[in-house]
C-alpha cells in the first residue's frame, strides 16, 4: 500500500474560487514520487472533520495550509482533533500565514513543523524522510521544534516554476465546486511574486520581490487543456501582478486566440504596467477572453501613495487605465485602502473626488474600499506598534483579523463614523451612475440631481444630518450598493451601506 499524505484547506468566507490550487501544487510531486495524496477542502466538505479523522488513520502526515484570518480557527480545531485521534502523527502547517510567522505558529503543541515559502519540494522531502523513519533535521525550508526550542533550517532556494510538475487537477471535485459556485471554474497561477515593495503587502515578504513566471507557451497549453478536459467556463488567474512582463501577457492573449480557446478569464494588475501596453494590446487581451481586471490603486492621494511606498502608482495612470480598459470592453475594479497610517481626511476627500471623476468618465470602473488591515510580517509593523496597534501574540489571535477588520487606534469613535459616512456618500453616488445603465427613466438630468448633494457633501466635508442616505435607504437603494468586491474576479462580496445596516 502506498504511504499517504493528507492535505487540508480550511474554509473561508464566501464561495470557493475552485479547488485550492496550493494543495494541488503540493500534491503533484508527491504523486510523482509514489505517495498517495488525499486533498480535503473544507469549503465544499461540510463534514470535513469526520473525513480528516478517517483519512489520517493510515497517513504519514497531515499538511494544513492557512491564510491569515478565519481559516486559522478551523485549522487549529482540525490540528487538535488530529493530535487527539493520532497523537504521534506529524502535523505540518504551511501557506502564507505560517511562513510569515513561523515561530508563533510553532508555539502550540499540536503543530510539529512549518513549511516556509514555496512548498512543493519541501513537503516532498518531508514525506520521504518520514517514510524512511528519519527526522526533519536539515530539510531546507522547514521550521521545527527540537528539544523544546524552535529550529529554522536554512532557506530552500526558489525553484523556477517551469521546472515543477503541473498541479494535480484531477484531484479536484469540479462538480462539487460547480454546485457551490453555479459555474465551472478553476483558479490558475501563471506566475508568483511581484517586483514592487508596497509597505502594507505580504507578497514582498513571502516572495522576496521575485517574479517567477511560466513561459507564455506553457500558460496557453495549460489553460487550453483545463478548459477542454474539465469543461471550464472561467479561469481566474491568481497571479499577484499578471502583466509584470507585458510582452509575455500579450503573447498569452495571442496564443489563446490562435488556439481558439473559448474561456472567460480575469487577472490582477497594477495600473503602471497596463499603461505600458498599447490600446491594441489591451484590446487583444479582451479578444482572448479577459473580461475583468482588479487593480490595487489604494489611494488617489500622492502623499498616501508615498507613505505606502507605491512610487509606481500615479493618478494619471489610473485615468489612463480606465480609458484603455473601457475602450477594450474590460470591466475593472479599483481597490481602496482607507485609514492607512498618516492618511488624513483631506487625503480621503481627494481620493473620493478623483475616483468619482474617473467613474463619471468611464462606466466600466467599480470600487472595493477596505479599512487598512495590518497583516503579519509587513515592513511597517514597528511603526504600527509605536502608533498603538497591538500585534496578535498567538496563532489563534490572528483568527480575528479578516480583511477589513479595524484594529487601528486612530480610526475609532467620531473619526470612524465620519469615514463611514463619507464612504456611504461616495458609494451611493457611484451606485446611481451604475444603476442608470439598467433604468432608462434615470436620464442624465435625474442622475445629476440625485448625485449633486452627495458630491457637494464630499467636497465640503459636510456629513451631518444625512437626509439623502435616509431617503435612499427608504427607497431600498442602499441595499443594492456593492461595498466590497473580489479583487481577483470582481464579484460582489458585500452589499449595503453602513447607515442602512
Key features?
five-stranded parallel β-sheet, seven-stranded mixed β-sheet, alpha/beta, globular, pyruvate-formate lyase- activating enzyme, Rossmann fold, 16 strands, 19 helices, 3 domains, 501 residues
Mind telling me the CATH superfamily name of the largest domain?
tm_1862 like domain
Number of strands: 16
CATH topology of the largest domain: pyruvate-formate lyase- activating enzyme
SSE class: alpha/beta
Provide the domain count: 3
Largest sheet: 7 strands, mixed
Taking all residues together, what is the mean pLDDT?
91
Assign a percent range to the helix content.
40-55%
Order of strands, widest sheet? 2-1-3-4-5-6-7
Can you tell me the residue ranges where pLDDT is under 50 for at least 5 consecutive residues?
Answer: none
Number of helices: 19
Rg measurement, Å:
24 Å
The N- and C-terminal alpha carbons lie at a distance of: 56 Å
Q: Which second-level CATH architecture of the largest domain applies? A: Alpha-Beta Horseshoe
Strand content: 15-25%
What is the CATH first-level class name of the largest domain?
Answer: Alpha Beta
- What is the general shape? globular
Provide a concise account of the structure shown:
It contains 19 helices and 16 strands. With 501 residues, the chain is α/β, with parallel strands linked by helices.
